Amino acid sequence: MQALIESEKVPDYPGARSGPSFRFIPRARSTKLVIYFSGTGKDNGKFDFWNSGREIRENLLFVSDGRNHWYQDGVPGLGETVDETARTIAAWCRFLEVKEVITIGASMGGYGAILFAHKLGGRAFSFGNDTILKLPMSRSKQLMPRDAKTPVNDLAPLIEETATPVQIYAGEMDPMDMVGARRIAHLPSVRIVTLRGVTHWCARYLNEAIGLVDLLTRYVRGRAIPKLDEAGNYIESPEFVDLMYRANQAFQAREFETCLDLCERATTISPLNEAALHLKGLALIKLRRPKEALLPMSIVAAAVPHFEDGQVNFAILMRLLGDLPKAIHLSHKVLKQWPDCDKAHHNLALAYLAAGDKRKAYTHAVEASKLLPKSTQYAKLQEKLKPLFPRLAARPGK
């Protein structure tokens, strides 16, 4: 292993296997160390990749940063800084005669994986992440505490400095993952696969599509990963990535005309990109031009049937266009594939209400509120229908 961090002493290995933010699992005869970096909100012994990760028959280290500091202060219990944490891990590697370090993570964990692959002379596998911290709309901007320090706020120069091998799989329906990927796509040691119709939860999708254990095993062992039919071309054009970033910013700011204009410009570069077409359709719906939204939304629904929002928004569009039977049929299809889709239940409630079936409307309004209790929109619809069915509303859990 080409360790970039030296350590003064080897830690007391037998007594340092676990803590609230780390869990070390040694494996006899292994010469590799696989480190899994958890995403946001994981603390007190909870780790991402816990089930699939343990299937890899190598030395394993699971880590978390429950403070959501993007591993800027290292890993609690292993060091108070990035370098201290890296020294601790490097010492374990020498104790175990580890020859190769592999880091794996998603989202915030992906940032940590790339950061520590650089520090430890390893290679990193990420499922979509920021590559610079606190850009507008980024998860680090939204979830990182304001007082958190960012001593290592940009991964690009680190990767370039040591030619750190980085493999990224990221969903094209997440504009910030695309911005993060595009920033480092030019570096020779970086390999990126973008997936059409896939959101930020790329690891979850890949687990269902091809199996996460097989995917990670192949990467750890240095074997080729099969090509995926969903592989796209989102980041091939820097101009396209920039236009989509600005379009999503405009949509969030409710500047729908600006969003639509930027989407139109983006689709001149990549006419059939599902992310651009989907956002264009949403902007047209917000502008109360549902007939114009029909073509882009139809293409998305047909091209990426695994994209939940694309399917449910197409069903919503059918309701807005007055085709209630189709809206109801499509919403039930969505629920068959994604039973916890609150938007589908809400669309069914509105469609059944418009069709005159108030009992079914109330039933689905209740389900939508159960799935997303914080939604005032769902709560208002439920309260509107509740007086019509006092007995139904009085049942436990209603």
CA(first)-CA(last) distance:
59 Å
The number of helical elements comes to: 18
Q: What characterizes the major β-sheet?
A: 8 strands, mixed
Give the SSE order as H and E letters. Answer: EEEHEHEHEHHEHEHHHHHHHHHHHH
Question: Any idea what the CATH architecture of the largest domain is?
Answer: 3-Layer(aba) Sandwich
Mean pLDDT: 93
Strand element count? 8
Rounded to the nearest angstrom, the radius of gyration is 24 Å
Task: Please tell me what the overall shape is.
Answer: globular
Strand order of the largest sheet: 1-2-4-3-5-6-7-8
The CATH class assignment of the largest domain is Alpha Beta
- Helix amount: 40-55%
Total number of domains: 3
Written overview of the protein:
With about 400 residues, the protein is an alpha/beta fold. It folds into three domains: about 15-235, Alpha/Beta hydrolase fold, catalytic domain (Rossmann fold); about 235-305, Tetratricopeptide repeat domain (Serine Threonine Protein Phosphatase 5, Tetratricopeptide repeat, Alpha Horseshoe); about 325-398, Alpha Horseshoe (Serine Threonine Protein Phosphatase 5, Tetratricopeptide repeat). It has helices at about 50-55, 80-95, 110-120, 140-145, 155-160, 175-185, 200-210, 210-220, 240-250, 255-270, 275-285, 290-305, 310-320, 325-335, 340-355, 360-370, 375-385, 390-395; strands at about 20, 20-25, 30-35, 60-65, 100-105, 125, 165-170, 190-195. The protein has an eight-stranded mixed beta sheet with strand order 1-2-4-3-5-6-7-8, covered by helices on one side.
